[in-house]
């Protein structure tokens, strides 16, 4: 990298001058949005001491002027990355970034934040961005400065938390990633319990979006309150969880964001805006799964409920009795406070069958998926509990990758089930601590795909979907001795009227239980058949209006954009309309090329 810089330094110097000149020109010709805002916007603006006088009047241009990067940017998608000339293009982006870097540093000034050029890899190593600008603001003025400078330079900014998403929700190459984890609140603590009042007759918690779920959980437990929507790991941020409508697995639990009653966020003009669900119910139908497209969320206020002490029970049950039996399945999911079901394929082989498989590589004739077992974890309110029994949060004893064990190949299913068998049959926790958290895989990487389908009252749709995955897997094990997935984790979420939430009450409302099943399955991204099963699944259940979890792996499925657009239909239009109505991002500052394929370009700018 240093070498490249030296060789090209003369060229770069020339470009810097040119670029500064064009910036000045841009500033000068800037069509400033009037500072007299319509009343409905004005009342959402929160006053923050703003030191950046020179920027305070700079808003966004009305005309769309592409940045110097625009024509060489590739979409943030994996197909593009395999193209032969990808390296050359990426080099070109990098060279222009060196120039932009100087300009960004100059315009942001000494009060920061620092801007770095970084290579980005997400948690499961399935998204690689060759180079982007990385900033990690610590106060709101720094956030405002970045946004205003980016707007001036026609660059795009996307907020991120811990990078746990598997979908291309990140900034495009050459643009700005704003890591919000160190952002401090200017008018209070990072987490605050708010007592019921005349405004809201229930407890709420105000939390900065960069706070990790495990930090929030500790705070909730200490204050004896809970949120009934607990994802399967606690190391992601509140902002990431809300933006992607992350969820737990309970009959009465919605997506996490559905509990949000108030939010403050920085819009694309750098203004801090405040919205409450009571006053802006329509906007909240978008914000609870906003995908980062409405601004940089600063803090959110969520509704909490008194915590319960719960009893967690681990059971190993025959797969056939639960997943091929509508009555049993229905009773299990609807009668327990929370339910986690895991199937690890090929887990019922006995000692001699295992030996035979090791010796010959042959799948025993007697094996079938229906003969396998599932690990059923149920969580319910405990009756009388001795305080000393209450345990804190536990990590799953995975000892390897997410789906279970450190054994590789087909025998991992059995090893994973053995780990589940080794768990204590009963433990007690406060509600938020009752969920088994996941550690990162020790070997390689494992990704996850999750599709939602509305559960009908006869449980026909959820069981058909679950059985499809089981039988597809069984066929590949039989025919090829390999498995397309390492784990199937059917989960459930209560539907809401949020426009683009996958657990969506506007989709298939007839005979609906008001809940969706989540068909979540895990495998290393390169595992044989993993892409095939995702693709076959979504096309097979298209008629049942299947939709992907926004944060998981689906962008590799051909035609997925059409499927997403079709399934949400008018929901997408309403989502787009609320972006326009509240003037949060008129010029697509928070957009990326992946999401633009779904939501389109701004019609205002
Ligand atoms: C091991 C593992 C287990 C998981 N388990 C579950 C589960 O049980 N249930 C479930 O539903 N999901 C689950 N997920 C998915 C996870 O909840 C989401 O990917 C979540 O978005 C991750 O949060 P993050 O902090 O890493 O956000 P990131 O992935 O860094 O960001 C996601 C997106 O959120 C937006 N965003 C983040 N912060 C802000 C902000 N302050 N303002 C505006 N936009 C913002 C941006 O659009 C960003 O691109 C799991 C993921 C992993 C890796
Ligand atoms: C949680 O995330 C942090 C920051 O990315 C990381 O350093 C840490 O190892 C993670 N912890 C677990 C248990 O995954
Ligand atoms: C779900 O909520 C309803 C209404 O509050 C309650 O009657 C029911 O028992 C709850 N069910 C479960 C499984 O928690
Ligand atoms: C294992 O299963 C086979 C059938 O595949 C059966 O014949 C054998 O008796 C079983 N062995 C044990 C130890 O259970
Ligand atoms: C609670 O459990 C602890 C440890 O099991 C025991 O010592 C104690 O006597 C119990 N207390 C009551 C009130 O049962
Ligand atoms: C795999 O896990 C088992 C049980 O958790 C452990 O005993 C064993 O040492 C592990 N093996 C390796 C290679 O890590
Ligand atoms: C079958 O397995 C082999 C390797 O064992 C692999 O190359 C091939 O792609 C697999 N076929 C299918 C359909 O998964
Ligand atoms: C809903 O259930 C009723 C009674 O079981 C049935 O007659 C009807 O066809 C169902 N409707 C749909 C859309 O499934």
Automatic annotation (TrEMBL):
Signal sequence annotation: 1-34
Residues annotated as domain FAD-binding PCMH-type: 127-307
Top-rank lineage group of the source organism: Eukaryota
Record-linked Pfam families: FAD_binding_4 (PF01565)
Entry keyword set: Signal
Gene3D superfamilies for this protein: 3.30.465.10, Uridine Diphospho-n-acetylenolpyruvylglucosamine Reductase, domain 2
Name of the protein this chain belongs to: FAD-binding PCMH-type domain-containing protein
